[in-house]
Amino acid sequence: MVNNLTKPLILCVDDDEVTLKLLDRVIRNAGWDVITARSGRDALEKVKKTRPNIILLDIMMPEMDGYQVCSKLQKNNETSYIPVIFITALRKEQDKARAFSVGATDYLVKPIKKDDLLQKIRKHIKTDTQWKELRKNARRWREKLLPSEFLHFKEFLFAQIVLEPEKCYNYLSIL
After folding, report:
1. Which domain, by its residues, includes 56?
2. Which of 115, 110, 112, 88 is nearest to 99 (CA)?
3. Which of 63-72, 146-155, 160-169 has the weakest average pLDDT?
4. 31-35, 114-118, 165-169: which has the minimum mean pLDDT?
5. Which residue, 52, 70, 96, 148, could crosslink 9 as a Cys pair with Cβ 3.0–4.6 Å?
6. Which among 22, 7, 35, 30 is positioned nearest to 87, based on CA atoms?
7. What is the number of alpha carbons within 13 Å of residue 69 lying toward its C-beta?
8. Do 151 and 133 share a structural domain?
9. Are residues 137 and 106 in the same domain?
């Protein structure tokens, strides 16, 4: 099942119930829908069923940590585009670097400020929406654009920028 709601859906993953309740309240008050998971395994199951627009993910959890969850999401073509924002108590640069190396799109250190959280969510919802539109357009372009049309398109572009014939030939041969 894919999330086709008009309101973005945010998945919050943390083994701490108080943190989940706080995130739930802040996000709902901002006008978005929320689902929660208390473990990495639970999060992966919920992602399969709901396809959230953004995932807020703690790092330190029993059984499967946030790094492992994010890595599994990145290895799956169906979930690799979901922005993951780590929300953690880990402050060291090496922790942050590791988060980005497994596919995080952003990183916040607890205790988080409400305004910082909402700003990051808004930014990534906007970016996610733009990526989805680009992917949709890319599929249409692949379906419609024939190789011969691409050659005509390149020739048209070169005519617009008024290239010398020799340079035009060189560019046409490499593109």
Report:
1. 9-141
2. 88
3. 146-155
4. 165-169
5. 52
6. 22
7. 34
8. no
9. yes
